[in-house]
Amino acid sequence: MKRRCLSWVLVFAVLGMIPLSQALANDVVEYEVTNYWQKQSFGHVYRIDFTTCTVSEPAGVGTPQALVKQSFSICNKDSRVRFSVTHANGYVIDYDWILEDGGRIVKGAYKDSNVGWGPSIGRARQVLSPPPPAVSLAGKWAGYRDGRKVADCSIQQQGTTLTLIIHRTPEERSRGRLVGTTQLEAIDWKEHGSISSDGRRINWSNSYWIRVD
């Protein structure tokens, strides 16, 4: 039944086609779709991150609802997406989209746990650049002051969370965090540092660290 529904849906013309033929360059895309049921229609905007295969429904557009659960069985930005979302009020929508014109055009179907099934038609409305990856600082460092090495150091990193270590007796440690891609904070030392463009030097207020690995 669902397969026949999808085949029928694909004959619908898509409004608002984007006159470009290249494939979408970025991995985060917002899709504006309209779900049709009998004589009613419901607009949604979904933001899909194809790197992580996750979806969100941005506030302020369409008929947004908080998503409390999601899953993907197909996650291909150039050809097809099949996913399921559960909203905060408990209803579930299953989507099966065929993506055309390099991922810009949506022709597909949906199944709503409240109202039934119908066509889901739309387009990519916005292509978003993914956030810049966190700079990698993990490894061995040497601490310098006035041009003279004063300590062996190291940094442990998990995402933007850091542990900064000065290897002396007693060992000194500070929790840390990245602030963008050019700054970091040593929370327990109440220090801020700036990261060089190549990621191999950290300048502190009265010293600097040089990567040695």
What do you see in this structure?
- The strands form two sheets. The protein has an eight-stranded antiparallel beta sheet with strand order 3-2-1-8-7-6-5-4, covered by helices on one side. An eight-stranded antiparallel beta barrel has the order 9-10-11-12-13-14-15-16.
- Mean pLDDT is about 80; it is low at about 1-25.
- With about 210 residues, the protein is mainly beta.
- The radius of gyration is 25 Å and the shape is elongated.
- Helix content is about 5%, strand content about 55%.
- It folds into two domains: about 1-15 and about 25-130, Beta Barrel (Lipocalin), CATH 2.40.128; about 140-210, Lipocalin (Beta Barrel).
- A hairpin with a 4-residue loop joins strand 5 (about 80-85) and strand 6.
Blueprint of the fold:
Layout lengths: L1 H8 L18 E10 L2 E10 L4 E3 L10 E10 L3 E8 L4 E9 L4 E8 L3 E13 L10 E7 L2 E11 L2 E7 L4 E8 L3 E4 L4 E5 L5 E3 L4 E4 L2
Antiparallel strand pairs: 1-2, 1-8, 2-3, 4-5, 5-6, 6-7, 7-8, 9-10, 9-16, 10-11, 11-12, 12-13, 13-14, 14-15, 15-16
Spatial order of the strands in the main sheet?
Answer: 3-2-1-8-7-6-5-4
Just give the CATH class of the largest domain.
Answer: Mainly Beta
* Overall outline: elongated
Number of helices: 1
Structural class designation: mainly beta
